[in-house]
Structure of beta-fructofuranosidase:
Amino acid sequence: MSKEKLKKAREFEQEQLKRISPEERPCYHVTGGSGWINDPNGFSFYKDEYHLFYQYHPYSNEWGPMHWGHVTSKDLITWERLPLAMVPEESYDNFGCFSGSGIELPDGRHLLMYTGVGYVSDIPMANGELPTHQTQCLAVGDGTDYEKYEKNPVITGEDVPAGGSKVDFRDPKIWKDEDGFYYAVVANMTDDGNSRILLFKSTDAFQWQYVCVLDHSDEKLGKMWECPDFYEVDGKHVLVVSPMAMMPEGLKFHVGHSVIYLTGTYDKKTHQFIREDVQPLDSGIDFYAPQSMQTPDGRRVMIAWMQAWPNSKFVPDGVKYFGQMTLPREINYRNGKLIQQPVREIENYRGEYVHYENVEISDETVLNGVDGRVLDMTVKLKVTDAFKKFTIKLAADETYDSTITYDPVREVLSLDRSRSGYMYDILHTRDIQVKPAGGEVTLRILMDRFSVEIFINDGSQTATMVLFTPQEADNISFAADGKAQISVDKYALTF
Ligand code: DQQ
């Protein structure tokens, strides 16, 4: 395999890095070296560090032939940039190295499993594009340099059971189970335009056999299910998928690209997954293709692409790179739901602290010391009939603001970032059904320079959105239509 393309891409990235100052990047959210990023890939612990790869097109702020970018971290909060790991170059991946996952092999090497998308003919199809197909491939490395496996691809369309597409067959997520076998879940479009998740099994992670269909979209839960993830947490089995083209259902599921989790029972002998429930994973605007891993201390930690696909063609002027990841989140299962919390390591970056107890809010109110753009703030709102609406304005000045509003009658939390400086007529609002817990709605709000992540009622729901607001807009205020009572704990985050 020629290393020329990889060398060129790495040199290009190095050169581009100089154009982007640290102030133009978030403080603690992963971004690409230059150009465009999407899905997190290969999230794993290897040689005493967390490794995160990502779908990457270094050459422009638009999606293009997919490379794999690479960062590492000791604590999941601050990240070091490594040279990009893979370029599309082989016959089986010359259209792109699509999403996949990573795991350490018993011999100490790091294995990446990904979807190679390769051209299969030079005769254009009716839509003018050249036909491609998708196969599952491997690359093995030492944490910095990766070699594609000489026997790639390791799972092909021939392994897809009847009824499924050889073109839409992607995003392998690998794990090693207690029985000593490797397993991988792979997304597959079915001939009727729906989707299913295929389970494969291997003794050595190099030779794979098809096992069964784990679950399918059933014409109800969207079309192609992308980026599956399957794990057990707190005794419950969870299948996470990112459906394209979901039908909305009240305020529970929004239309289009979504992320849902299916909980159920899994028989490790027969590999039968019996779904019991389905819920949205994040109800905000910018969240897709999450991937999780188990940390050495046993936590299930998930990270996602912090961007909405339909908005991704609208890159604000002057932006030098496009796309970020969410803060990694700890996942637990409680009372029938996945609970998400910011990874606890973020608390090591807490600085200046202010606290307000039972403050009465009516007209727009600024609380001394409650401001900034990089912070960890918890607002507890007592839900009573003394107010009709309660609003928090973030990243605000005379021109800009982004709001979170709670309506206690409808029990709806609304996001609105239409005044955030993102100057396109795209998706900027979202309504989320939020029931009070113990008479309160608790919002833990993690802000970084270009984002807001909201953990609602101890993380039983979350809502994420990206901001392009100038950093000078750093006021925070509270207002109620009526009288609301809140308590606030706010930490500045310092890096
Ligand atoms: N993005 C990747 C695919 C995946 C999709 C391509 C989801 O592997 O299905 O960049 O965002």
